[in-house]
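To close the chapter, one final illustration. This time we ask the reader to focus less on the individual chains and more on the assembly as a whole: which components sit near each other, and how the overall shape emerges from the parts.
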Amino acid sequence: MVSYPGQNLHETNFEPLLEAAGAMQTGTFDPARLDDLAERPGPMGQLAQALQKMARGISEREERLRRDCEGEAQLLEITNDLASELNLGPLLKKIMETAQRLLDAERSTLFMYDEKTDELWSHLALGLEIQEIRFPAGMGIAGAVFSTGDTINITDAYKDERFNKDFDKETGFRTRSTLTVPVINKDGVKIGVLQVLNKRTGPFSPADEKRLRAFASQVSIALENAQIHDNLEKKVSERTKDLRLANDLLKEEIQERRRTQEKLVSELSEAAEYVKKLLPAPVEEGPIRIDWRFIPSTSLGGDSFGYHWLDRDHFAFYLVDVCGHGVGAALLAVSILNVLRSQSLPVVDFKDPSQVLGGLNNAFPMEKHNFMYFTIWYGVYNPINHQLKYAGGGHPPALLFQESPSTASSAVQLETANTFIGGIPNIVYESKAMTFEGPGRLYVFSDGVFEIKTGEKDWWAFSDFVAFLSKPAPEGLSEIDLLFDHVQSISHSGLLDDDFSIMEIRFESFPGERP
Amino acid sequence: MELKIIRADDQLTHLALSGELNVEGTTQIEKEFLKYTAERQKPTLVDMSEVWFLSSFGIRLLFMSVKALMAVGVKMVALHPQPMVEESLRMVHLTDVIHIAHDSEEAFKLLGLE
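The assembled structure is written out below.
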């Protein structure tokens, strides 16, 4: 065992050392407390010195760790702060301010790379103005960092030949130390350079370099996000502009179409009004009384009818049904009506129904009228001899009811075996004649009056229609009004699919009277 | 409105219609109907057992086909028309050109294809 003069280890008090070791464990040890012991010669003094050294070492490491943690926390805070800013302009300003604060520097600048011009650019405060400065991407310290991707830490800028003094001259600032790092995106592409100037507490340290590089990596992410946001905003703005324009054009088009449609509706109404005005007024007095109902299924229909005296002894009445409805059918119906009213068929005796139908057939071949044919029922009544001559061309038969005071009349169907008008050229149409034996009511109508859809695949039977008409209406009511109400009530859709046209001709005068 | 091609050869065109031959139904099949009748110019059999309404517009289509067939001396027969459809054809007095048959044997006889 080694012994030291003046020291008996068995009698030495190691308690202070043990206390010190315990305190070190809990981090409450103050090395100065062992100063007295450290001055003693021998192992005691050496132990005390070793403990002091250990404690100081631990303390320094803890301090470094604390500073690192603070740095990490600060960086995290900065990262979150940067991430919250998506607008490029404010972001650039924030980056420079943050870099300045982080490195405790007097100034900082973020230079962005312009690929198109191969320049580095930034916004600098020059006097009271913010100006954009640009220079070639390889120029100066910033250019050197950009070109090489290295960090450049300069203690005295004026001693470095790469340093450009012009900005100092212009701004009045005196650059001393500079720390410059590249800004690199996630794809490894250099997008700029971050520079801080004049650390307030001395030159920039390696820790500063590390800190600034860490910050620069966050900057690249923030810039990328801002760029994406900026691009997106531009796209949205462009798209919004396009949509707004398209919307305006669409609105204009809709308005234009609305105006056209209104004009069309107005013109159709006018045309429908004109067609209605062509129809003769009901005849309420005299031996031949005529009432009628004309309800087209659309605003313009293909039905038309009329009646007039051919001469003092012959009264003609007729009903025309052009196939289809709408403007085309209406136009043809009006043409036919005008021909009949004006009696303008050449070499035709309008008192002879067969001649009239033959003349119409030759005047209106369907090939020349958009392949439209028409049906017609044409009759001529002589009130002197009570004879009725008639001819139908593909048309439903007229129904004649000879009156009986108390019971329903039975109908006589007045039809001829002729086909419709305009189909086959030069055919001979037959006509028939009958003589009235007393007053009667005659109905001439189009098929729209009885072809009523009553169900999915069900239709009103013609025989049921005839039976309905055979019942005289109660006093004060009209048979044709009752008929119209009835077909509306039995219609599957409540609407009429075809034009509803019916004439009721009552023959009152008897015998030998001229009306 | 539906149009089915049952047969289309050198001897015969056999079609089947189903639905309503109103303005809408007729417009739906007009082009194809004319293609298989007026354009083919063969004896034509039209099964109308599933047609439950014939409007003046439908008659117009049938007549246009018949006229083209008549020009080359062939006929059209409407097979099994529903009572209302048959009544419509009779009312326009077209049964001399659009012949009506109530069974296939009668139809083929009318078409001259016994």
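Chain B has a mean pLDDT of 94. Residues 18 and 75 of chain B are 21 Å apart (CA to CA). With these observations in hand, you are ready for the problems at the end of the chapter.
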